[in-house]
Amino acid sequence: MIIPPPPELVPAEKLGHVHFVGIGGAGLSGIARIMLARGMTVSGSDMKDSRTLTALRALGATVYVGHDPSHIEGADTLVVSTAIKEDNPEVVEARRRGLLLYSRAAALSAVMEGRRVAAVSGAHGKTTTSSMLAVALQHCGADPSFAIGGNFNDTGTNAHDGTGDIFVVEADESDRAFLQYSPEVAVITNVDPDHLDMYESRDHYHQAFDEFVDCIVPGGFLVACVDDPGARRVAEKARDRGVDVRTYGESADADVRIVDVEVRPLSSTFELVVDGRRVGSVDVHVAGRHHTWNAAAAYTAAVGLGFPSSDVREGLSSYTGTRRRFEYKGEVGGVRVYDDYGHHPTEMLVNLRAARGAVGDDGRVIVCFRPLRHTRTQYFYRELGEALGLADEVVVMDPTGDDPIPGVTGALIVPHIPLPPERVVYERSWSAVPERVAERVRPGDLVLTLGAPDVALIGPEVLELLAERFGIDNSAQSSGHG
Predict the structure, then answer these.
(1) pTM for this model (two decimals)
(2) Would the pLDDT of 266 be above 80?
(3) Residue 12 gets which letter from DSSP?
(4) Which of 12, 179, 224, 361 has an alpha carbon within 20 to 30 A of 21's alpha carbon?
(5) Catalytic residue of the set 77, 82, 126, 346
(6) Helices 26-37 & 51-58 angle (0-180, nearest 10)
């Protein structure tokens, strides 16, 4: 459901009792947390109970399972998830009563009012880069507010109402939400067409990032990755228009250049060169070379905001990751299980390369992939299949996350996976998937559950099945971070 921006943005504290329709989602739950921290009255509803709802209740929110008109009793404002339909009974009742309706983007803008906003955008890497930036600023003593699309491994939260004047936000382009923000710092990690159900064409998708640059407030600046062709194009156009642009990457012309990269199975180290001078090294304690770019983006933004280079680099080296970003789930019998949100072909490629690096020469990579959205599957089924070719064995599930489309299933992807047929299986039955994965695994392998949020539930079941097979007490196995 798309809700247009309000004619005049009302600061959060003037919104009264705020009711969230779809409060369990990553975006809305974070805003709710911030409003609760500010002493506001918050309620909400979602279709199923979850740990997120339990946490929000503990913070003081009134949260319902299911949607009903009675749930909005006493509310002044509704914040509505884009996943909610126009005929949702709470939305229908709110319109009848003439209540104020806010989108996620408008609600975020309301809580960011009066803060210096650092908005991190891009097709991939938004959550990790914004998380790294928040951690680096915390290490510098800034106590920023933040709202990101994933929970920190250390704290288990995706949002915080800080005492400082900086607000770090993951600026989502999927529904053009990022065009409602007014950042002092705008970060573009990459421009790789996605969400083509929301954009008329790939050109329109690229154009949205040019418009995002126009949202930067006077005196602000753009941070962009020159190694990505799309982000480079946006940066060059912005410079031509007089925007203060600061680039990063491995390219020789990057303002903040990444050099001497050393990639280890679950971490990386690199040096930063600024204006031809080496400023020091950064240790990134998450798997995959792509995180060196994310860390360089966070460094460039933080230093641009006025924080010391050495403190920022120390802060980045203390980052331990966010949930569902190559998240370690456990190990049984020499088989490690990880989970990642990667659902776009480009994200899948970088995650599978990270998995390949983590498994070494002797093990194999076994992937269980659950496509996120039928529309994305319809547009990118060939590319999704090609990306999965980096695995050794693949189990493909059906898409989820939006309305079904006739003929769009996981079976559409399978013929495009460049592996022998016996190493690829399409499984429609959720209950059969853990066994399908477990039966393909042998000691030394790495299992990666990939894609839609609910596929994260498969990993623990696979660990249980492997424990039974190997005769191991799974409760004694490691379930921390690898």
Answers:
(1) 0.76
(2) no
(3) G
(4) 179
(5) 126
(6) 10
